[in-house]
Amino acid sequence: MKKIIKEYILITIGLALVAVGFYFFLVPNNLAVGGVSGLAMIINLYVPALSIGAIMIVLNLILFVIGFIFIGSSFGVKTIYSSLGLSGMIWILEKTCPMSGSITNDLFLELIFGILIGAVGLGMVFNQNASTGGTDIIAKILYKYFHLDIGKALLLSDFLVTILAGIAFGPKIGMYALLGVIINGFTIDAVIAGMNICKKVEVVSSRGEEIKRYIIEELGRGATLYTAKGAYTNEEKEVITTVLGKKEFIKLKIYIKEIDKKAFIITYNVHEILGEGFKDINE
Predict the structure, then answer these.
(1) Considering its fold, how many domains does the chain have in total?
(2) 138, 172, 174, 251: least buried by Cβ within 10 Å?
(3) Taking Cα atoms as reference points, which of 29, 8, 21 lies closest to residue 115?
């Protein structure tokens, strides 16, 4: 239950960031940077009677069916929550903070801020195996079946929308929108990688038994043991290898420092760990 609550809290924070980036920076400048939201902006230009939110709901319903078929029901539930949550947040912003125009009148500056804020939010949502709906669902399908990075998959699925934006709002806006899609894709991948970073740790110490016990009993992690021979001394020593979260690594480093100041520690940044105690290999 705690895990589920944490997932939905992170999704909600991510949605808030996406809504802020989209509403305050992209919409006032007609920057349709892909997605159902961008497509809704284009349709709204030609059919002003239909609100952006209403168009998004209709388009998302169609893609929800596709998502349930190809990705599964758990993803669909989170995506429905995310899509409705994002639409609701944008609707609230429209009612409480009506925008009469651009904040700075600097198209490039607002593109960068809108994309970066929204991409961080999308990265948080994607990292919880959810989506804000729309072309995000297509990106998830490409990720699942073709192992394409989510950011790059999103870039492909949004390319058509940027072409339509160029036709609807002019080539200048279209080129800015395409630039925004590219930045968005790479930023999402960077955010997801950063959130999933773990530490692979190798330890050589004369207090190996105590360190192993601390890793297993206090940190609740496993470890693998190797026997290695030093090139200079020709002495055989035991190498303890484990994978830890960032907070767990800090605890281990403090513990080793307290009991063996001569310990030898090597660390590696690992961007994805699948299996028991980490991310489900089926996700």
Answers:
(1) 2
(2) 172
(3) 21
